[in-house]
UniProtKB/TrEMBL annotation, chain A:
Localization per record: Nucleus
A Gene Ontology cellular-component term: nucleus
Lineage summary: Eukaryota, Viridiplantae, Streptophyta, Embryophyta, Tracheophyta
Name the record gives this protein: Auxin-responsive protein
The species this protein was found in: Lithocarpus litseifolius
UniProt keyword list: Auxin signaling pathway, Nucleus, Repressor, Transcription, Transcription regulation
PB1 domain location: 83-171
Known role: Aux/IAA proteins are short-lived transcriptional factors that function as repressors of early auxin response genes at low auxin concentrations. Repression is thought to result from the interaction with auxin response factors (ARFs), proteins that bind to the auxin-responsive promoter element (AuxRE). Formation of heterodimers with ARF proteins may alter their ability to modulate early auxin response genes expression.
Main location: nucleus
Family annotation (PANTHER family): AUXIN-RESPONSIVE PROTEIN IAA17, AUXIN-RESPONSIVE PROTEIN IAA5
From TrEMBL, chain B:
Membrane-crossing segments per the record: none
Functional pathway: Protein modification; protein ubiquitination
All copies of domain F-box, residue ranges: 5-46
CDD domains assigned: F-box_AtTIR1-like
Keyword terms: Auxin signaling pathway, Developmental protein, Nucleus, Ubl conjugation pathway
Subcellular locations according to the entry: Nucleus
GO MF terms, alphabetically ordered: auxin binding
Protein name: F-box domain-containing protein
SUPFAM superfamilies per UniProt: RNI-like
Organism name: Lithocarpus litseifolius
């Protein structure tokens, strides 16, 4: 269940990149909150015990058996188009590309495909060791938020990913990730 | 008085005692009854395949004809149990074959079945009649071919939600021409099928009552099959779409006409792929349906679902996706007055949930359907007020499983935990046997469960509670508890060890991502030799020091008469 090599903080949902950086304010109405934020709101919850993963993204939650997961979710989309093409941009590359997420079995598979597309190395490494790699793969999810690739189970990722971006680490430091509804557009890749 | 009757009379009386629990009780009355039950018992249920060995089963019940076996723990359904954990049926089949047991029926759930096992099964028991596999894995269509080819008197082959590797072997064609005894066939979980063999099979099996097709069976073939089998009682359609070609309306017209002749259909499922415009063809049979399962029919939108349901006035059991919405549930409530069981599954568990259901839908159901006794409900949110209303409207729950997609969500109106709501449910439904909790919950809900849930047999807990007291309330209060499964809750050694004898009265306990430590588990294992205390340690952690204070990621313990199992993989440690 644990992500190898990543600290606990990586699995917390917050609007920022791992590896330090400033604390980000989380909008109270924002759906994506860590358990400890919620439990702090209630006086009868005295525990300081935390979930090791955010509640929305725990392994095996919601408790739907794997056969059902494979056979009934997003069937509508699958009927209309079984493909899940998303745009991929890479900092420094002149053209955007597209990948079909449904063609890949998991993150390492996708990393290999991206490396071939952009003729570069290091994407696979960046998934395993985000803090030290040259590239930072991020994606825009259904809510319009930019998230680090690799945190959530693969099935969840392909359902919610709308576009991908492979950022250079040097760009990442200035990258503004904004809460939904904010006026500020931030320097998000088009 | 009964002791003066010859054994045959006792046996005859026991024949009327059919439930396995009642038979178990009968066998405990006295030595005579134990003996008579022992030699006359034909149906045996083994809820945990590691609680007993095949040899001991055969020794005690040499006349066994129908066997049910369950393998992996329930949480294996949700990927919490690694591959190769266990649950192999091979040793059972081999032992039964060696002892020449007259096996006729085998029902397996969450077990690993190999092609070899199926082959041995098919050749070892001449009167074998029924094979039911639920959530099993490890076999291919080669194994099915062996069953088809060799079981001359096969009546039932029911494959529910299994992971089956499909070879290009047309297994269905392996049923010999002389096979005319089929009553029930379900291959919905397969992706392919040989259509010609299917039609021939249906044509020569006039006793077919239950037929569940897969998505490879197109509408045209369904129509021809229904022509051959208008006597069907239980139908699972495969694909329910028409191609956009010129034969469109002709096929549809034929289908409608054929369906009008199928007056016996009472259970309907499938619609694995569906073009909603074809649905009116089934409206005529909706009138008589008692069971409708549309939980895999993601192609039917809310409004079409509602139109369909308006025709189903006699439904007793409904399985549906949450895209029906609260409004759709209100229609169910006003149409299906005889409803006893409702299951609402999530169609988009990680999405925005626009179409999902809330407490409103559930309250509507409870007020329209007072006979409701079994519920599985995945929803966006729930309130205490709603649960209290449901408890009042429906005091007959046997099964109550609520799953709020955000597992620690409080009552959104009051921001309170859902303790009071669940408390109302357990207090009002005195016959409650199974309960699954979710939402923000403190120790209080467990206090209520311990106090009121006297008949509770199975409890599933996730992300709930605050301290060991929670778990203790349950262990102390629920005298009939058999299965307890807990994940991501702050229960530790103190709760685990308070009453170690309790676990011998239960089938099993699962605890994952809780606070129990290796030391606590070791202590338990030492004190209770008739429990297998298994630790699942999947992480390849070189740093995993075997320190007693280390928290255990996954623990599964169960009572057993046969000691630690010999087939445990290296990531499962049985403590002793």
């Amino acid at each position: 269940m644990e992500k190898e090599g990543l600290g606990l903080e990586i699995t917390e949902l917050r609007l920022g990149l791992p590896g330090g950086s400033a604390p980000i304010l989380v909008d109270k109405n924002e759906k994506k909150r860590v358990f400890s934020d919620i439990s702090g709101d209630h006086e009868n919850s005295s525990t300081d015990w935390k979930l090791t993963q955010t509640k929305n993204q725990a392994v095996g939650w919601p408790p739907v058996c794997s056969y059902r997961r494979k056979n009934s979710f997003q069937e509508k989309d699958r009927l209309e188009t079984s493909k899940m093409y998303v745009k991929v941009s890479m900092d420094g590359a002149p053209f955007l590309r597209k990948v079909d997420l449904s063609m890949h079995k998991g993150y390492s598979d996708l990393a290999v495909a991206l490396e071939k597309l952009f003729d570069c190395f290091g994407i696979g490494e960046s998934l395993k060791d985000a803090e030290n790699s040259e590239q930072v793969p991020i994606y825009e999810d259904k809510d319009g938020d930019w998230m680090l690739v690799g945190d959530v189970p693969w099935e969840m990722f392909i359902e919610s990913c709308k576009r991908l971006r492979i950022m250079k680490r040097s760009e990442a430091k200035g990258f503004g990730l904004q809460p939904k509804g904010s006026d500020y557009k931030g320097n998000v890749a088009k | 008085m009964m002791n003066y009757f010859p054994d045959e009379v006792l046996e005859h009386v026991f024949d009327f005692v059919t439930s396995h629990r009642d038979r178990n009780a009968v066998s405990l009355v006295c030595k005579l009854w134990y003996r008579v039950d022992r030699f006359s018992r034909q149906r045996v249920f083994i809820g945990n395949c590691y609680a007993i060995s095949p040899e001991r089963l055969i020794a005690r019940f040499p006349g066994v004809k129908a066997l049910t076996l369950k393998g992996k723990p329930h949480f294996a359904d949700f990927n919490l149990v690694p591959q190769d954990w266990g649950g192999y049926v091979q040793p059972w089949i081999e032992a039964l074959a060696r002892s020449r047991i007259g096996l006729e029926e085998l029902r397996l759930k969450r077990m690993v079945v190999s092609d070899e096992s199926l082959d041995v099964l098919s050749r070892s028991f001449t009167n074998f009649k029924s094979l039911v596999l639920v959530s099993c894995e490890g076999f291919t269509t080669d194994g099915l071919a062996a069953i088809a080819a060799n079981c001359r008197f096969l009546r039932e082959l029911d494959l529910q939600e299994n992971e089956i590797e499909e070879k290009k072997n047309h297994w269905l064609g392996c049923f010999p021409d002389s096979c005319m005894s089929l009553v029930s066939l379900n291959f919905a979980c397969l992706k392919e099928i040989n259509l010609a063999a299917l039609e021939r099979l249906v044509a020569r099996n006039p006793n077919l009552r239950s037929l569940k097709l897969n998505r490879a069976v197109p509408l045209e073939v369904l129509q021809r099959i229904l022509m051959r089998a208008p006597q069907l009682v239980d139908l699972g359609t495969g694909s329910f779409v028409l191609d956009h070609d010129s034969d469109d309306s002709e096929t549809y017209r034929k289908l409608r006409a054929t369906i009008l002749k199928c007056r016996s259909i009472r259970h309907l499922s499938g619609f694995l792929e569906v073009a909603p415009r074809c649905l009116p063809a089934i409206y005529p049979i909706c009138l008589y349906l008692t069971y409708l399962n549309l939980s895999y029919a993601a192609g039917i939108h809310g409004s079409e679902l509602i139109k369909l349901i308006r025709h189903c006035g006699k439904l007793q059991r409904l399985w549906i996706l949450d895209c029906i919405g609260d409004k759709g549930l209100e229609v169910v409530a006003s149409t299906c007055k005889d409803l006893q069981e409702l299951r609402v599954f999530p169609s988009d568990p990680f999405g925005a949930g626009h179409d999902a259901v809330t407490e409103t839908g559930l309250v509507a159901i409870s007020s329209g359907c007072p006979k409701l006794n079994s519920l599985l409900y995945f929803c966006q949110q729930m309130t205490n007020a709603a649960l209290i209303a449901v408890a009042k409207n429906c005091p007959n729950f046997i099964r109550f499983r609520l799953c709020i997609l955000d597992p620690t969500k409080p009552d959104p109106v009051t921001m309170q935990p859902l303790d009071e709501g669940f408390g109302a449910i357990v207090q009002s439904s005195k016959r409650l046997r199974r309960l699954s909790l979710s939402g923000l919950l403190t120790d209080r809900v467990f206090l209520y469960i311990g106090m009121y849930a006297e008949q509770l047999e199975m409890l599933s807990i996730a992300f709930a509670g605050e301290s060991d007291k929670g778990m203790l309330y349950v262990l102390n209060g629920c005298k009939k508890l058999r299965k307890l499964e807990i994940r991501d809750s702050p229960f530790g050694d103190s709760a685990l060890l308070r009453d170690v004898g309790k676990y011998e009265t239960m089938r099993s306990l699962w605890m994952s991502s809780c606070e129990v430590t290796l030391g606590g588990c070791k202590t338990l294992a030492e004190k209770m030799p008739r429990l297998n205390v298994e630790i699942i340690n999947e992480n390849d952690q070189m740093e995993f020091v075997h320190e007693d204070s280390q928290k255990v990621e996954k623990m599964y313990l169960y009572r057993t008469l046969v000691g630690p199992r010999k087939d445990a993989p290296e990531f499962v440690w049985t403590l002793e």
